[in-house]
Automatic annotation (TrEMBL):
UniProt-annotated location(s): Membrane
Superkingdom, natural source: Eukaryota
Name the UniProt record assigns to this protein: Late embryogenesis abundant protein LEA-2 subgroup domain-containing protein
A GO cellular component annotation in the UniProt record: plasma membrane
Length: 239
């Protein structure tokens, strides 16, 4: 037995929610379908347009992505500690990677220090700056040298000298850290219609580097490379 449309409508009035009328003409339905498809296409188009705009805006204005710094190796030679001074040479190699899709960057005024643990500077070195393309990678080598007497190297105080010796005797390793400070300039790459420059101060921290020192020589224990922490701060001087 088929329900009459009147019976249906009446029945449906009892429902607490509204349903679409069942007796619409088919031509109206197809118009509705076309409208729905059109609105879906329009929505999709708008969503894509919006996403692209957001991506470009993010990439250019908000997204100078922090460079990735990895320590590949650290070795020390002629490491000698006495009650009055510390003398040693360090060689560290790093890989710096620029993950930005839309930005080139240059790193300048690079100053690096080797520390005992996290806060006792043992030696300082500066390195030539360099530029990087978007998604570019650079290898950097840093050499530190101190005889304990140079005026441009940190003075290591007796308590620290003693702690280094004790650590080395007890564990056969010395725990170093390396920090780097530099100026970082981001420039929009390949988008000549929006010239964009931002300057940052960048600090990189590579902590907990245990170096096994035997007869004054040694290298970073654990092998492989170590990712360093990188912090970017907007520099005061804008262009
Ligand atoms: C380390 O010391 C040895 C002798 O004690 C010397 O021949 C060598 O040149 C020194 N190496 C460095 C890198 O200073
Ligand atoms: C430590 O390394 C230096 C430089 O490579 C070398 O001249 C020296 O003979 C080494 N010392 C020892 C004890 O192996």
């Amino acid at each position: 037995m088929a329900f009459s449309s009147e019976f249906r409508t009446k029945t449906m009035k009892n429902f607490p929610y509204t349903l679409l009328p069942v007796t619409e003409k088919s031509s109206k339905e197809s118009t509705r379908t076309t409208k729905t498809i059109l609105s879906i296409i329009t929505t999709l188009f708008l969503v894509i347009l919006l996403s692209c705009s957001i991506f470009i805006i993010m990439a250019l204005w908000l997204g100078p992505q922090t460079p990735v710094v990895k320590l590949n190796s650290l070795s020390v030679t002629n490491f000698t500690v006495s009650n009055t001074k510390l003398a040693a040479n360090w060689v560290a190699t790093f890989t710096v990677y620029n993950p930005s899709l839309a930005m080139k960057l240059s790193l300048d005024n690079i100053v690096s220090a080797v520390l005992f643990k996290e806060n006792n500077a043992l030696a300082i070195a500066s390195v030539e700056g360099f530029g990087m393309d978007s998604r570019g990678e650079n290898r950097v080598q840093m050499e530190f040298s101190t005889t304990g007497y140079e005026g441009d190297q940190p003075i290591v105080e007796y308590p620290v000298l003693r702690e280094i010796e004790e650590d080395n005797k007890r564990r056969g390793t010395v725990r170093f850290s390396m920090i780097m400070n530099m100026r970082t300039t981001y420039k929009s790459a390949g988008y000549n219609w929006v010239a964009w420059t931002r300057r940052f101060v960048m600090n990189s921290y590579c902590l907990d580097l245990n170096v096994g020192v035997v007869k004054g020589n040694g290298s970073f224990i654990g092998g492989g490379s170590r990712q360093c922490e990188v912090i970017l701060m907007l520099a005061d001087d804008h262009e």
